[in-house]
Amino acid sequence: MPRAFSPSGPALAAPLAGHQPPQVVLSQRFQVDDLVIHAPEGLIRPVHLAVLANGGYEAAEIALATAMIGPGQRVLEFGGGIGVVSRHIARITGPDCVLSVEANPQALATARALVGRDGLGVTHLWGMVVSGRAQGKTGRLMVDPQNFLASHPGTPDAPDHGARQIDCPALNLSDLLRDWQPQVLVVDIEGAERDLFAVPDLSAVQALILELHPGEIGVDGCLRVLEVLRSHGLLPDAGLVGGAVLGFVRNPRRPVPQTARFARLFQSLADPGAGPDRASVASEFPDSPLMTLRALTLPPPHGPGRAGILETLARNPMTARTATRLLAQDALAQGNNDGALALIGASPLGMEAQIAAIAHLRQKRLPEALTAVQRAVTALPHAPQARLLTARILLAQGDRPAARAATAAAHGLDPATPGLAAFVQHLAALPD
User: In this structure, how many other beta carbons lie within 10 angstroms of the beta carbon of residue 8?
Assistant: First the structure.
């Protein structure tokens, strides 16, 4: 049975008692489906909202967590970001099972607000995890002011151009492992994974979800991490490969892929233009639903057997939502509006609601289209495409003033929204 969090050990007590992060004012509110995010001004940008809306934000981590983590398991997360992954994990484990460490104070405050709203009992620590001695040491984080996702460990003598340096407590990995006693590690620390696992005893850890960063540590650095983890008895499972995000277990159910396959995978991610073709690399991991899905979403998008493969993936919890959405989008592209609606279901949210609205609009079922797009706007209030679709439906109903208002809302969110300029011209050409 999991024990409730108690900061009794030195690794947990010291950060809680003596190293509180600076105060952060959460002045902005965003909603994406059932995610309600309170964040400081400037942290969450349109690009982040778009990735959240299409299910791409930390999608591989969330998928592997779904497959690898069970109720009551204790999880230690490094690089918790804004809390989306830890929120998902805590919904699986139950309360008081997840400890999340984050170095960026703004992201940390956002995460605390996100999971605190749902009462999930996630414990957060401010700091940067290191494998060596941490007492009296400071971790340094370089934060891209335009994109918190681009934050990474840095050094004061070679800061990135335009990046802002944040100093935070250094937390020793061995101490955290001893005090929290996790069965699962979840690690996304933007290149610092290269040296993280060399020292500590990982014998109590049964599984690891790790995002590697070949662009920061190189292909050889990634392969070196795999070797170190192998020495700890943690092996990559062929069915738990999601691009740069890998699932490690002690007894893989499938043969461990050859090192050469991982080398090609990392090369394709480190330099997409010059490296191996990403679709062909994805096909080298046929046991992985995530890589199978990736192969279907890379050019060319329509291959033989696509529908059958997507139908199989739609039955897998790791890939169900994305595969179902792709099936519905394919149905729309083929003019099969009823088929798209059947796939989406009766009460869609977010992007699925937009698909339903388009299908209803095509069939001239305007009240149903408006209801669906209103669900999309509610779930994705910062998505300009949902506003533009609303305008199209309102215009079809003959409500030009409301259509103009929805168009203005879309323009206010993103003037470059595809199709917006043409629709504005169309509205302007209509007689009053």
Answer: 8
Q: What are the backbone angles phi and psi of residue 395, rounded to the nearest 5°?
A: -65, -40
102-105: long-range contacts, CB 8 A cutoff, minimum separation 24: 102/126, 103/79, 103/127, 103/128, 103/139, 103/141, 103/151, 103/166, 103/168, 104/141, 104/143, 104/148, 104/151, 104/166, 105/21, 105/22, 105/24, 105/166, 105/168
CA distance between the termini of the chain:
69
Spatial distance between the Cα atoms of 320 and 293, rounded to a whole number of angstroms = 10
Mode of pairing for the β-strands spanning 235-242 and 207-211: unpaired
Phi-psi region of 19 (alpha: psi -120 to 50; beta: other; left: phi over 0): beta
Alpha helix ranges (H) inside 54-163: 59-68, 84-93, 105-117
**Residue 341 in tokens:** 């609606």
Query: What average pLDDT does this structure show over 324-344?
Result: 94
DSSP three-state, residue 223 = helix
Residue among 36, 65, 64 at smallest CA distance from 49? 36
Scanning 42-157, the segments in alpha helix (DSSP H) are 46-53, 59-68, 84-93, 105-117
Distance of CA 302 to the CA centre of its chain: 25
This prediction's pTM: 0.86
Q: Give the mean model confidence (pLDDT) for residues 289-305.
A: 76
Contact 308, 322 (CB under 8 A): no
Q: How confident is the model at residue 188 (pLDDT cuts 50, 70, 90)?
A: very high
High-pLDDT (> 70) share of the chain, %: 88
Please say if the pLDDT value at position 132 is more than 80: no
Helix (H, G, I), strand (E, B) or coil at 169: strand
pLDDT given for residue 30 in this prediction: 87
CA distance 360 to 418: 21
**Residues 189, 129: contact at Cβ < 8 Å?**
yes
